[in-house]
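Run Gluconolaconase through structure prediction, thanks.
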Amino acid sequence: MDATRVLLDGRGLVESPRWHGDRLYFSDWSAGEVVAVDLDGRDEVVARVASLPLCTAWLPDGRMVIVSSPDGRLLRREPDGTLVAYADLGAPGWNDIVADGRGNAYLNSPGFDLMSGAPYQPGSVTLVTPDGSVRTVADGIAFPNGMAVTADNSTLLVAESYGHCLTAFDIGADGTLSGRRVWADLGDAAPDGICVDAEGAVWYADVPHRRCVRVAEGGAVLRTVELDRGGFACALGGPAGTTLFIVAARWGGTPAELVAPGSGQVLVTEVDVPGAGWP
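Sure, done. The structure for Gluconolaconase is below.
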C-alpha cells in the first residue's frame, strides 16, 4: 500500500477536490459545505449550499463556481464570499463540473436519480460559456461522474461509472464537443472523480474497489493507491503539483446513509508526475 497520510478526518461524503492557490478545496455533501484546507490540516468553511451533489470549479479569473443541483443553478462565489447567480441550467439534477482555461464550464447530469431508485437513463454533458449561455454538448453517457480538461484545452475526459471507462471528446473553438472515443477501458472499475497529469495520464478514484489508479491512454495501469474505504475523487496539487489529494469515505449506499457518518477523509500521498490541465 502506498504511503498516505490523513490530512483531514471526521467528514461526511467528501467530493470535488480542487487545488487552488495554496489550499485544497473540497465539498462535504453531507454537511452542504465547501471547505478549504491547507497542508497543515487547518480547515475553513468557505461556502454553504444545500445541494446534493455539491461540486465546484475555478474560473480563469480566480472565482469559484458552485453547482446548486436541486434548483438547477450555477452560482459564482465573489471575493467577499457572497454567492451570486452565474447561469440558469434550466432543470435540477446536476453532478460534476470542470472549467477550462478559456472560461467554459462543462457540467454533467446522470440522467436519473440514483438514490431514489429511479430506473437508469443515460446522462449528458452541458456547456456554460462565459457569456452565460447554456447548451447540451454530449449525451448517451453511462452515469457521467468526474471530468477533466487537458492543459492545451483540446480534450475533455469524462469518467463513465456505469460504462467502466474514460471517454474523451475533442473540444472545438466554441466549446462544442466532437470525436467521442473510449480513452481507456477500465475493466470492472467504476471511475468517479478524475484528474490529469503532465504526462497525459489520468488518475481516477474508485469507490467499490477502494483505490485510486493512474492509467495511460488505452487503459494500462501505471500506479495504484490502495485505500481502506471508497475513493470518491482525486486531485493533484501542492507546491510542486505532485501531491495527490484523495477524498474517501466508507460507502453506505442508501438514501438514509450515503456514507458512514464521520468516515470522510482527505488523504495525501506524493507522486512523481505533477498535475496539468483542469481541475
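The mean pLDDT is 96.
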